Amino acid sequence: MAGSEKSSLTGTTGLHAKESIDINKSLLVLRKVITALTEQKGDNPKFVPYRESKLTQLLKQSLGGNSYTLMMACLSPSDRFIEENISTLSYAARASLISNVPTKNVDPQIIQLAETKKKIYELERELRQANDHVQFLT
User: Fold this and answer.
1) CB-side neighbour CA atoms (13 Å) of 124
2) Which residues have C-beta within 8 Å of that of residue 84, sequence separation ≥ 6?
3) pLDDT at position 62, please?
4) CATH number assigned to the domain covering 7-95
5) Low-confidence residues of the chain: pLDDT under 70
6) Which residue among 1, 3, 110, 118 has the highest number of C-beta atoms inside a 10 angstrom radius?
7) Quick one: which of 40, 54, 43 has its CA closest to 99?
8) pLDDT value of position 96
9) What pLDDT, on a 0 to 100 scale, did the predictor assign at position 1?
């Protein structure tokens, strides 16, 4: 994912500038979502604006859902981008405060199928033992 570049520094124009603006808008909404998720308090849930951006709609299950999420922050080694680096680190620190509770999504039919297979295996084992016992007696 792109960062929040300043078009004055990068010199982008035309279509690339519009694309950069759209990316920055999505990142702004992502920041709003991360802020809302980190400010959640027990019984008083705060509104999370997932629908304001396609990016946040796609990341909804990863950000506040039931999955593990990894977010990487990339920094520039140049002193020229110190403000951007500080902003990125602040962004990443806030994102690290989000805590999800991952759950395994399992289809109930798969659970029932596994239980049925286990029962069939146990019944076949009992049948083999009964046949062995009958052969032993005869």
Assistant:
1) 6
2) 3, 4, 6, 76
3) 82
4) 1.20.58.980
5) 1-10, 41-43
6) 3
7) 40
8) 86
9) 44
Domain borders along the chain are 7-95, 106-138
Angle subtended by helix axes 82-95 and 15-38, to nearest 10: 40
Helix (H, G, I), strand (E, B) or coil at 81: helix
Written as six digits, the tokens of 130 are 């009964």
Handedness of CA 35, 25, 74, 55 (dihedral sign): positive
CB 4 within 8 A of CB 73: no
pTM: 0.61
Specify the pLDDT at position 39.
Answer: 83
Which residues make beta-bridge pairs with 44? 41
Identity at 37, one-letter amino acid code: L
